[in-house]
Specification:
single chain, mainly alpha
Length: 343
């Protein structure tokens, strides 16, 4: 029971850290890009990952966590895949309208459910699927406006969905199968993510903005916001790996849509963004969907735990059966009853 309580506290802490840091960095980056005119999102993300790796390296040198060797090919492919998915999401935003980009993000949940069902044989109850449908409907109402399509933008969005889903599923799978922590996996993979974005970032940003990140005139306030963004990103990256490792890729995406609703609310409160009755209705519907999802997940986990306890009890009864019992009637009946209970 003590281990279960500590695990639940760890999950709650990871969820809270993920929400708080993600909302903070969105507000910080929005001020940096919209108000201060620094539009280089992909390059900024590479700096985030470099700072994250440097921070984790310092923490490892101070023995705050133990580095664990992971197969280099696995880590390299995993890091490159995550880096590519970030670049594709940014390109998708550049080639598509805001509304279509939001639909791209919404499509990640059903596609993740499909991949986990097909390849990992994971089962999702009808109640959970219904709650996800309510959630997605609410977020769509709150955030999706125009839906303008184009061929290149659609292809980029499909590639972004696939790479993001596979990357998040691998984040969960690698941690569990190789028995590594979120910190250890992030420490190993961050250099490869940073490298691919650091090389491709300036080209992607120049293609999208027609501006050169190296020719940009950096003022002291822009540098201050960049540093703040990089500091917050350490918490964002760490909590992302932690949430996916402790829960599931689908739960992380549900949490992401909660962040979307919070960003809309904070944008209205702090940045005075336009806010309509449609936004309010969408956020309320999304919150209902998230509440239903959380409730049904808890119920399913309780059922799974009861089944696991029942199986453990049966195995214990089986192990306690004497291997060299006396051939009397009572012993024979005991063995017989044990066999029946296992069938």
């Amino acid at each position: 029971m003590g281990e279960m309580s500590s695990f639940q506290l760890g999950v709650i802490g990871a969820l809270f850290l993920s929400v708080a840091s993600s909302v903070s960095i969105v507000i910080c980056n929005k001020a940096l890009m919209s108000n201060l005119g620094f539009p280089f999102a992909t390059t900024l993300t590479s700096w985030h990952l470099i700072v994250t790796f440097c921070t984790l390296h310092a923490a490892q040198r101070f023995h705050l966590f133990d580095a664990k060797a992971i197969d280099m090919k696995t880590v390299m492919l995993f890091g490159i895949l995550n880096g590519v998915s970030i670049g594709l999401l940014n390109l998708s935003l550049g080639f598509n309208s805001i509304g279509f980009y939001q639909m791209t993000k919404l499509a990640i949940i059903p596609f993740t459910v499909l991949l986990e069902t097909l390849f990992l044989k994971k089962q999702f109850s009808q109640k959970i699927k219904l709650s996800l449908l309510v959630l997605l409907g609410g977020v769509a109402i709150a955030s999706v406006t125009d839906l303008q399509l184009n061929f290149v933008g659609t292809i980029l969005s499909l590639l972004a969905i696939v790479t993001t889903c596979v990357g998040q599923i691998l984040t969960n799978t690698i941690q569990k199968r190789l028995n590594v922590s979120s910190t250890q996996l992030l420490y190993q993979s961050a250099p490869f993510q940073a490298a691919i974005l650091f090389v491709s970032g300036p080209f992607v940003d120049h293609f999208l903005t027609k501006k050169n990140v190296f020719a940009y005139k950096y003022s002291s306030i822009v540098l201050a916001f960049i540093i703040l963004s990089c500091i917050i990103s350490v918490s964002v990256n760490f909590s992302t790996f932690m949430v996916i490792g402790k829960t599931s890729p689908v739960t992380y995406q549900v949490l992401g849509h909660l962040k979307t609703c919070l960003v809309l609310a904070f944008g209205y409160t702090l940045l005075h963004d336009p806010f309509t009755i449609r936004n309010i209705i969408g956020i309320l519907v999304a919150i209902i969907g998230m509440g239903l999802y959380s409730y049904f997940c808890v119920q399913d986990n309780k059922k799974k735990q009861s089944v696991d306890l029942s199986l453990a009890s049966q195995m214990k009864d089986k192990d306690s059966t004497p291997l060299l019992g006396m051939p009397d009637k009572e012993g024979h009946e005991s063995k017989k009853s044990t066999k029946v209970s296992l069938v």
